[in-house]
């Protein structure tokens, strides 16, 4: 089986490579969800404009554990939505659709998650994962 290698990853610290891959996935999702810079920054925990700009260059950089956790939740939500809805368009629309379901209580999932807390990201992921079992 052929191994695929990132040409830019030779000699890069594994933690830095992990950060690069996580940020790449995160920003690809943000593009699909049409997140503003403010929304992206809030999903990452309210990072500064400077930090967000640096992250958007997809550096090979070790990320804080909480940042990786946040990105993991976003990836899980994205995966759950893609499983629940037959098209990317519908899945991406759902993240912005207001719902009275708990925990969102009239907000869209993206609005709810953009309030910045790690707990809200966890709850949103738990919600969408639970929908997959219905």
Mean pLDDT across all residues, rounded?
92
* Tally of contiguous helical segments: 7
Relative helix content: 55-70%
Structural class of the secondary elements?
A: mainly alpha
Approximately how much beta-strand content do the residues carry? under 5%
Query: How many strands, which pairing sense, and closed or not: the largest β-sheet?
Result: none
Estimated radius of gyration: 16 Å
Number of strands: 0
Give the overall form.
Answer: globular
> Unreliable stretches, pLDDT < 50, 5 or more residues?
1-7
For the record, the count of structural domains works out to 1
Query: Alpha-carbon distance between the termini?
Result: 38 Å
Can you write the helix and strand succession as a string?
Answer: HHHHHHH
